[in-house]
Amino acid sequence: MSYLALKHLHVTCVVLSGLGFALRGWWMLDGSPLLKARLAKVVPHVIDTVLLGSALVMAWQSGQYPFVQGWLTAKFFGLLAYIGCGTMALKRGRTKEQRLLFLVLALLAYAYIVGVALTRSPLPWL
């Protein structure tokens, strides 16, 4: 697969992953039973697996790697924050207030990752 096709696949998965997470966050806050639906549990894993796989192949094809390129290192740590906060928001938060806080933090981490990707800078808004 060409680098450009891979990048388009990656960006599509980024958008789908972010929208899906925001929707599941809304369902969590609303107490919707849709959050427990099989599709709501399986589809995000499929999208995120393709997202991660495309990222790894793009890194390999371009010769740019985390801990070598500062902006990719920033994306890596942003991803860890996004995953941790997202897990707390959708599964592990004990109260709705905790879940809301972690939802907001996860969405901020997502925005940071996108900003880093667009600017190729660890400090995207400076």
Name the features.
0% strand, transmembrane, 126 residues, mainly alpha, SirB
The percent range for strand residues is: under 5%
What's the order of the H and E elements?
Answer: HHHH
* Total count of helical runs of at least 4 residues: 4
Q: Give a quick account of the main beta sheet: strands, pairing sense, barrel closure.
A: none
pLDDT below 50 for ≥5 consecutive residues: which ranges?
none
Number of separate domains: 1
Net shape? globular
What's the β-strand tally? 0
Distance between the termini: 35 Å
Q: Compute the gyration radius: what is it? A: 15 Å
GO cellular component, one term: plasma membrane
Protein name: SirB2 family protein
Transmembrane segments: 6-27, 67-88, 100-118
Organism: Candidatus Dechloromonas phosphorivorans
Short description:
79% of the residues lie in helices and 0% in strands.
Describe the structure.
- Keywords: Membrane, Transmembrane, Transmembrane helix.
- The chain crosses the membrane at residues 6-27, 67-88, 100-118.
- It comes from Candidatus Dechloromonas phosphorivorans.
- The chain is mainly alpha-helical.
- The chain has one domain (3-119).
- It has four helices and no strands.
- The longest helix is centred in the N-terminal third of the chain and has 28 residues, at 3-30.
- It starts with a helix and ends in a 7-residue tail after the last helix.
- 20% of the residues are buried.
- The model has no long low-confidence stretch (mean pLDDT 98).
Layout of secondary structure:
Elements: H1 3-30, H2 38-62, H3 70-92, H4 96-119
